[in-house]
């Protein structure tokens, strides 16, 4: 966890993202038809202002709410699910290619996954064997994102195309990693603002894997639902803290440089892509909740109520690291999480965080198995995640209240152009 929030990018400019729903579509009315009935009273969606209206919706059909109608684009320079707003439901799943499956089978699988992702993100049923789980819903801002783990290149004979940035992450003192829930040949991130839409996509991806790949591990997460607060806010984590304020924003002049691999970079098939570090971070909530409010705020370095730095101001006020109190000590403690993770305290290292919270019940001692599915994006993890985590390892006050239990590093290629599938430039290059 670092002192950075998710980018304020919306796939539905000007629309309130709120929950709600309508009557199920009448028999024979597809999700695509509900979404494509444009009319004079239609809603304007998407960065390009694509019109999606409901004035001419079939008789008896109730127009989708803005939440259900939200749509992310599959094709583009970058894959979806990196700069899109946080969704309320998420699934992370890693696959290993089966014995005997190689480059040919991997290419066929990525082609299937890309076709499925494009259809589901458009609000259409899966291309084959649709389960009808999301039959009555719109796209609900669904995104599917695909990546390659280090071992993928060995299994497909593409070792010469493996990026140097996929070198194994170093060991950290807070690691208690379960290898069975770490890494993987292939990685898929699914997010949506409706739980059934997200699950529908998960099942479709799993079914598409067929005999080519098997699930290595899967994790399920959630965030606050759109419209649950009076106005848009930085998310809170399960510790009750405003989790992140200084995330790089797409409007920053150096955003692309920090997050995406440039054209002409190495390897060339990663142009427009990014590297995802995935960590399952368990929060030791029973210990955390024994702390007083003041103690919790000193651990983080920010006020719990509004996320403002302890040095004063509002959430977005620059933290004054030199400010001292009446006793001469720093107002923001030297080991406060927010102090240690600031980019200017880490040689400018920065990454886009896009996490989900999780709760997987209780352990044998009755403690909650809950925390953060940490996902961060950067052009180079050795200049993004690694230096920040190394510094956290050396003295972060938060470290005694969290435990890293699983880890993965994945190369996520750029977006697929029209007529392409994700990873085609690698697999057919």
Automatic annotation (TrEMBL):
EC annotation from Swiss-Prot or TrEMBL: 1.11.1.-
Cellular localisation: Cell envelope
Pfam families: Dyp_perox_C, Dyp_perox_N
EC class name: oxidoreductase
PROSITE patterns: DYP_PEROXIDASE (PS51404), TAT (PS51318)
Location of region: Disordered: 1-29
SUPFAM superfamilies registered for this protein in UniProt: Dimeric alpha+beta barrel (SSF54909)
Domain Dyp-type peroxidase C-terminal: 234-416
Keywords noted in UniProt: Heme, Iron, Lyase, Metal-binding, Oxidoreductase, Peroxidase, Signal
Xref: PANTHER family: DEFERROCHELATASE (PTHR30521:SF4), DEFERROCHELATASE/PEROXIDASE (PTHR30521)
Protein family membership: Belongs to the DyP-type peroxidase family.
Protein name: Deferrochelatase
Highest classification ranks of the organism: Bacteria, Bacillati, Actinomycetota, Actinomycetes, Kitasatosporales
